[in-house]
Amino acid sequence: MGAIFQSLGRTVTAGIVLLIVIILLVGSVSGTWIKVDHAWSLFFMRWLHVLSGIMWIGLLWYFNFVQIPSMPKIPDEQKPAVSKVIAPTALFWFRWAALATVVTGLLLAWMSGYIGQALSLQRSHVAIGIGMWLALVMAYNVWFIIWPNQQRALGMVPAEPDVKAKSQRMAMLTSRFNTFFSIPMLFCMVAQQNGGL
Ligand code: HEM
Q1: Is the CB of 174 under 6 A from ligand 1?
Q2: Are residues 110 and 18 in the same domain?
Q3: What is d(CA 113, CA 30) in angstroms, rounded to the nearest whole number?
Q4: Taking 90 as the threshold, does the pLDDT of residue 2 lie above it?
Q5: Same domain, 20 and 116
Q6: Are residues 112 and 57 in the same domain?
Q7: In whole angstroms, what is the distance from residue 183 CA to residue 58 CA?
Q8: From the CB of 187, is ligand 1 less than 6 Å away?
Q9: How many A from CA of 189 to the centre of ligand 1?
Q10: Whole domain around residue 27: which residue ranges?
Q11: Against a cut of 0.85, is the pTM above it?
Q12: Are the C-beta atoms of 188 and 197 separated by less than 8 Å?
């Protein structure tokens, strides 16, 4: 067990193996097996979508609830541990998870046959439509505002000290803006299936 949990790759693989065991157990107990049809593919895409969404919004909330408020409390000589090691790794998973969430979300809407109705906010799909627009703005912010500003702020690309300071503030404010949007976005996302709106 210890050998598995000492490696992130093996841990994720073990999670997938456990999932397969659960599927086989449920199938053998109930006698009904998964049928890979359109409905199941839709469900599978929904699962991938929720996984990537959790990775994205989990890291957004980590930045806002943990990293940003902790920075002023960290002694200057220890700050590079965050800015040079932790933040670049977190940003890597953050931006790619944002892209994966957008791709799986758009595929989900397209496979469900309502992508146009949702994006044009027609009544029957207004909840998911609003959720999608909020999340699309957030994803735009990640890739085109937060990421370029963070690259300057963290010294991943060269920048003058005043530009660096401005970039840091811009990245922080945009990250706060995304946290603000994430609250109604998630409500709208789950409201479509569950009659929340
Ligand atoms: C541009 C980005 C996004 C798009 C295009 C999108 C699209 C969708 C679509 C089409 C659905 C299916 C709605 C339905 O018919 O029930 C959905 C559900 C969902 N999405 Fe998103 N989404 C996006 C971002 C996010 C984010 C950032 C999260 C954060 C975790 C998220 C979490 C969820 C959840 C939890 C569900 C509900 C699944 C269910 O109730 O079965 N989505 N999304």
Answers
A1: no
A2: no
A3: 31
A4: no
A5: no
A6: yes
A7: 13
A8: no
A9: 5
A10: 1-34
A11: yes
A12: yes
